[in-house]
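seq:
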Amino acid sequence: MTTHNTLDVTAFDFVQGDSPILVSMPHSGLNLTDEVQAGITEQANKLPDTDWFIPELYDFLASLDIGVIKANYSRYVIDLNRPYDDKPLYESKTTGLFPDILFDESPIYAEGKTPSDEHRTFCKEQIWKPYHETIEQELARLKAKFGYAILFDAHSIAAEVPMLFDGTLSDFNWGTNEGKSCDELLANTVTQVLRPNYTQILNGRFKGGYITRHFGQPENHIHAIQLELSQATYLNDELAKQSVYQLDGMKLPLIKQQLHEVIEACQHLRF
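struct:
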């Protein structure tokens, strides 16, 4: 199969803000390239491992004049939170730059339908590189303007994923690469602003993916933190078990208010 040399939609959306914070959403994309679409299984076509509704959860960012970069292609096309060379980030089981299994360990592709090397090279050059180059350029701009920059990498995941972790995930899972990706003031601030009805952990199973680890350089006044939010905090649980993903009308305003408070607290920081 010949890879198209153009994308059906733009690789990502980027809105520049006037705040020292940039929010990244690398796993909320829902689009598939033609070659991926042609090969995936019926279950994978439901995109179960998507960071569902992340743009909706953070739709208040514009009101705070905070910039945002949002992927438009699914992580099944290319995972933007993995390194270009696909070096593993965790010693435990995980998925790579080009995932071939779902989080339930079933195959993403029908037998013999894995995308070609040509297609993968195309995705690295036309999706991965521009996304990371834009983050790099924007963080440099913010640092030049404000003296520092904060990268907030926004994710979500099902509360129970046996392949990745035992038991049930905390509501808020913060990752700072064991304190290497940001000043401790940032981690202390986000953890202290949470209301007691939400559970949280810092550098548990999720310590921050490639984006947090690569761009977080506190010694150079660039601070990065990842939030892996449990989808139990905002999805309809019963429907999610059936691979139907819908926002829960009761949970949604509560989690959005909490996220608003978290981001606003970050906005008030000075480094």
